[in-house]
Design brief:
It contains 17 helices and 23 strands. It is an alpha+beta fold. The strands form 6 sheets. The chain has a 6-stranded antiparallel barrel with strand order 1-2-3-6-5-4. The radius of gyration is 29 Å and the shape is globular. The termini are far apart.
């Protein structure tokens, strides 16, 4: 029996519609702007958008690009018509809902390359096709509740936007279902239950079962109803900040969570909030834990607010490590990297092992309360989070309360140990001396030639580093790309990998594992984000593919009649690895000396194995000629076989008549000044930055590459499968 009210999806829509309508806006030309100069009229509708945090509107990039194909999108001013305040139930037209218009400025578009290249008229814009607008005046407005889930659930949804069915612009909503994903999860498909009007682009898509915005309306089908929406999780792909800065994504999500936390705690009026409505939504699937399996809406809002009061995490990997400790397994690596403490909560829904979400989230919050932050928290903020965890656990079972207390005590002891560790040393990890590489995770790019064709397969991964030797987390891979196509094909995968590895104090190392004939690949000149070459943004080094395999290769004597007798014999591969490790340790400490490997007085030469073996262990072999041609190709193999883990190579200048003497002279001075090899990756990055900034004293370093075979970062031996023949 029911009490006569609507139920199920219809009831959820009835509850959520006023909240979503109040936060949805109409996007158009600025007042008195391009379409109607000197007028206060707003002009035609370009599309829709919605407030995601105080002063911030999210919409589609193609919406803010309407009517201005030649106009730069970032910095463009647009008009925003919205409903001031949170209306009482009855919709935006109810008493107390005031319509206003304000000017906004486009702060960012995704992807960034839309500023360089845009599709033709009526063509789909590249995913994720998002734009963030900053409102240029302090106004009172509502905000939606954004999902924290990395993947949408394929349930009933509602989408909202501006329509003019009756001749007047108004915000309307319609229901449909999610039918799948597209663009590697960047887009979600909307079923054809209803028509998407043109002005609805940029409007919110709301999960009716959970009362959270999961997408942004992007496009409709030409043949009828349905279309595409962009997952709001793509906000995590906003450009990474400069070192030491918080970043736009974290700032906006912090403001989002604090807004809803403040609304939940406020007793200034009796209007229902998103948290209130979450508690009134029709029940989801049966909870096997009798109400204890999930946090209540109020608890969830409070937890998000308390997490937002803390400084953000030091890196994405820090969030993933805490989630893994709670789940007991590595979290899903496919969605965009988690960048905030809140994002970690989204990876804890439906945890494995039969435990409830509430227990998993309380364990996670306990670990966050004793975690390392990028800067000291506001006094008492971490203690306040722990006090809330302890109080919330009171409604759960007693063993969990005891477990959380013990977990908190262990975390405090570990944090104190980390703080007492010597400067530059990660707790339980290797020390980082001044000017050296960060000891954490790095990004690994592997490229393989596709048979005899001039096509290449590739893979981008996160290499865990010395803390977990050999641990590799794939990010993306592809096949059959030309050299010219590689920069564009790899732009998004590399950006995602950097988001996972970069910290607020250092950009992660990029390791490029390719066959020596590809050492001339100009990876350091590629632009991934921010319009700055990779080699200027971060250290970039070259590596031979795979490891130094355990089995001896062709031409290695494994023993015979003349081999020494008696006892087990050392494997040649073990001897080779030991020799390489000894050379690596000595060259790291220095002092360094350079030695031309493929050149003598400007003329090519091929070094012999005996000559290479006789050089001091602190030698850095230097190559100045094309890596894919002899004698340099053979020299690179010989240098590696001789156990040199540090070497220098170079793409020669286009003009074959240019002398290599300035390169050798500049490199000799650089090695002498560096003193030890461990600082070379960062010093080469600095040199590239100087050359990029038009310092003529650094031009000699153009095309220089550093071969860096760090034994603490072993590479996988398995190549990816080729595509179908």
């Amino acid at each position: 029996m029911t009490d006569g009210r609507t139920t199920g999806t219809a009831r959820a829509f009835e509850l959520l519609e006023p909240l979503v309508q109040a936060a949805t806006v109409r996007v158009h030309a600025p007042p008195g702007g391009y379409d109607t100069p000197g007028s206060h009229r707003t002009g035609p509708t370009w599309g829709s958008g919605f407030f995601i945090a105080p002063g911030w509107v999210l919409t589609c990039a193609h919406v803010v690009g309407e009517g201005g194909a030649a106009v730069r999108l970032t910095g463009r001013e647009v008009g925003i018509t919205f409903h001031s305040g949170r209306p009482r139930y009855g919709g935006p037209g109810a008493p107390g809902a005031v319509t206003g218009t304000v000017t906004g400025r486009v702060e960012c578009v995704l992807p960034e390359r839309l500023e360089e290249r845009r599709p033709g008229r009526h063509a789909l814009w590249d995913l994720p096709d998002l734009a963030l607008i900053r409102v240029l005046a302090p106004v009172s407005h509502a905000c939606v509740w954004l999902t924290d889930r990395s993947r949408p659930r394929f349930d009933e949804v509602a989408y909202f936007g501006c329509t003019e069915d009756l001749g007047t612009p108004e915000i309307t909503g319609r229901t449909t279902r999610l039918r799948g994903t597209a663009g590697n999860g960047a887009a979600i498909r909307l079923a054809d239950d209803d028509e998407i009007d043109p002005g609805m682009s940029g409007g919110p898509v709301v999960d009716l079962a959970r009362g959270e915005v999961v997408g942004v309306v992007k496009a409709r089908r030409h043949t009828g109803g349905g279309g595409l929406a962009v997952s709001v999780v793509q906000l995590r792909t906003l450009p990474m900040p400069a070192r030491g800065q918080v970043g736009l994504y974290r700032r906006i999500m912090q403001a989002h969570d604090l807004h809803h936390y403040d609304q939940h705690l406020s007793d200034l009026d009796n209007r229902r909030t998103w948290t209130d409505v979450h508690g009134e939504l029709p029940p989801q699937e049966r909870d096997p834990y009798g109400g204890r399996g999930r946090l209540t809406p109020g608890e969830r809002t409070t937890l998000c607010g308390l997490l937002a009061e803390l400084p953000p995490p030091s890196s994405s990997e820090a969030v993933r490590a805490l989630v893994e400790a709670v789940r007991g397994e590595e979290p899903d690596p496919q969605p965009p990297a988690p960048l905030s403490w809140r994002d970690g909560l989204g990876l804890l829904h439906d945890p494995p092992g039969g435990t409830g979400e509430a227990a998993a989230m309380l364990r996670y919050a306990t670990d966050v309360s004793v975690a390392e932050y990028r800067e000291p928290p506001t006094p008492g903020a971490d203690e306040e989070l722990w006090d809330w965890v302890r109080a919330t656990a009171e409604r759960l079972w007693r063993p969990l309360r005891r477990e959380l207390g013990e977990r908190h005590e262990r975390g405090l002891a570990e944090r104190e140990r980390r703080r007492r560790a010597p400067a530059g040393r990660a707790a339980g990890g290797p020390a980082r001396r001044a000017g050296g590489l960060p000891p954490g995770a790095s990004v690994l790019l592997e490229v393989w030639a596709h048979g005899w064709e001039h096509l290449y397969d590739w893979r981008v991964s996160v290499l865990a580093g010395p803390a977990h030797p050999g641990r590799l987390t794939p990010v993306d891979s592809g096949v059959r790309a030309t050299v010219a196509a590689l920069p564009e094909r790899l732009r998004a995968p590399l950006a995602e990998a950097f988001r996972r590895c970069d910290t607020h104090v250092a950009a992660a190392l990029l390791e490029v594992a390719v066959a020596p004939e590809l050492f001339g690949l100009a990876v350091e000149d590629w632009v991934v984000a921010g319009g700055v070459p990779l080699g200027v943004q971060r250290p970039v080094v070259l590596r031979h593919p795979g490891g130094r395999g355990a089995a001896p290769g062709p031409g290695i004597d494994q023993g015979g009649p003349d081999a020494p007798a008696g006892g087990p014999q050392a494997h040649p591969a073990d001897h080779e690895a030991g020799r390489a490790a000894a050379r690596w340790a000595r060259v790291q400490a220095g002092p360094l000396q350079d030695e031309r490997a493929d050149c003598a007085g400007g003329r090519p030469r091929a070094p012999s194995a005996e000559w290479l073996s006789g050089l001091p262990d602190t030698t850095v072999p230097v190559h100045c000629r094309a890596a894919d041609q002899e004698p340099t190709l053979g020299s690179l193999h010989a240098v590696r076989d001789a156990g040199y883990g540090v070497a220098v190579t170079r793409r020669p200048p286009p003009d074959p008549g240019v002398s290599c003497a300035p390169f050798h002279r500049g490199l000799r001075e650089e090695l002498a000044d560096a003193g030890r090899a461990e600082v070379l990756p960062v010093r080469l990055q600095t040199l590239r930055g100087r050359a990029y900034g038009a310092d003529p004293d650094a031009y000699w370093a153009a095309g220089a590459g550093l071969v860096w075979e760090d034994p603490a970062r072993p590479l996988p031996d398995v190549e990816p499968l080729h595509g179908d023949l």
